[in-house]
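Risk register update: the risk of archive-format incompatibility is retired. Evidence:
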Amino acid sequence: MSDQNSKPANGPLHGMRVIELAHIMAGPCCGLMLADMGADVIKVEKVGGGDDTRRFVPPDIHGESAAFMMMNRNKRGIVLDLKSPGGKAALLKLLETADCLVENYRHDTMEKLGLGYETLAKLNPGLIYCEISGFGRTGPFSEKGGFDLIAQGMSGLMSITGEGPGRPPVKVGAPVSDITAGILGAMGCAAAYAHKLKTGEGQRVDTSLFEAGITQTFWQSAICLATGIAPGPMGSAHPLNAPYESFLTKDGWLNLGAANQTNWERMLNVIGAPELNDDPRFSSNKSRIENRETLAATLAPFFADHTVEHWVSALEAVGVPAGPVLSVGEMHAHEQTRARDMVVTVDHPVAGEVETIGAPVKFHKTTGGVKNAAPLLGQHTVEVLREAGFSSQEVSALLDSGAAKST
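Archived output:
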C-alpha cells in the first residue's frame, strides 16, 4: 500500500493560490488536479451542509461520504455564507491575492452574487477566472445547466457507445464529460497561470461538459467530417482498426489489439490460424474493417479455448498488445496500479486511514501528489481567514454572525 504523505509538498504549481467555488464533480475535479500539482486549493462551501457530494451516501466511512473524500483530497475547506455581507467580504478579501478562482455554478449565479469576472478583475487584475458550465458561457445554450448524462447525449458520445446498431443508447460508465471538463479546466488554469507569471495578467478560462464530450469523439468526428457518415456504436471494437476489441475466453474477457498488419499476422500464428491471412475478407486492415462482424465470429472460437492469462502471455511474447478486462477492485489491487501510486492512503480526522486514487501525472523534480485527506466541513475556516489578515476578534465576529462556520 503506497502512502505519499511523507513526500514534500513541492508540486510544480506550488505557490499558486486557488479559490474553489464549485460543487459535485466538474469544478471539484479541476481543483483536485490543481491541488495534486501543488496548488493551495481553498474550497469554499455553503452554509447548511456544504458541497452536495457530502450527502452522496452510501457508501460512507465512519459517516464521511466516500464520494466527497475522493473528489476533495489535498484541499483546505472553509464555510462562508456568500449571501451575507460578512461572508461575501471575507471571500473578496481572499480573492484580492488569489491566483485563480474555479466556479461551476449556473449561468448568472456569480453575477447575482456580485462575483462576476468584470467585478473581480477590477479587484484583482491578475485573477484567473475559470468557469466550467454545461455548454460554455457563449452561444444559444449558454444559460442551460450542466449534467453529465445530457452532455454525453448531445456531444455525440452516446451515439457511439453501446453494443451495436439498433440497441438502446448507452452512456460511458464513468461521468466522462464531468471529469474531462475538470481536466480541461485545470489545463486551462495552468496555461493561464504560465501567462500570468510572464505578464502579471489574469484572464477568463471557459470550458464546458459539452465541449469535454466532443473532445472524446476525435476518431468518430474525423470519419464523419471526411465521409459525411456518422459512425454508430461498435461495442468494444475500433472504427479504424481490426481486430481491436474484446473476446471471451475460458475464464473472462480479453482485449486484443492486433491493429496493424504485422500484429495481425503475429496473432494468427499464436492462435494457430495463419491461413486466415490468405482469406481476402481478412487480408488487409481495410477488408477486416469491412468484414468486422465476420472476422470477430471467426476468431471467437479460438480464444474461447484458453484462459485470459494464457492468451495475454502468448500474445505479449510476440509483441501483440493484449490485456484482461479488470473490475474496478481488480484494478485497485493490480501491481501496476500500486507501482504507479494510483491507490494511496491518506489520514482523515474522522474516517481514519482512507484509500484514494492517486495523482495521474508524475513530475521528476516537483513531485506533487496526494498529501492530505478531504477537509471536514469548515475545517480550515479559522486558519484561512487568519492567513488572509483577519484578526482573532474579526474571525470570531464572522463565526458568531453565521457569515462563516468552522468545524
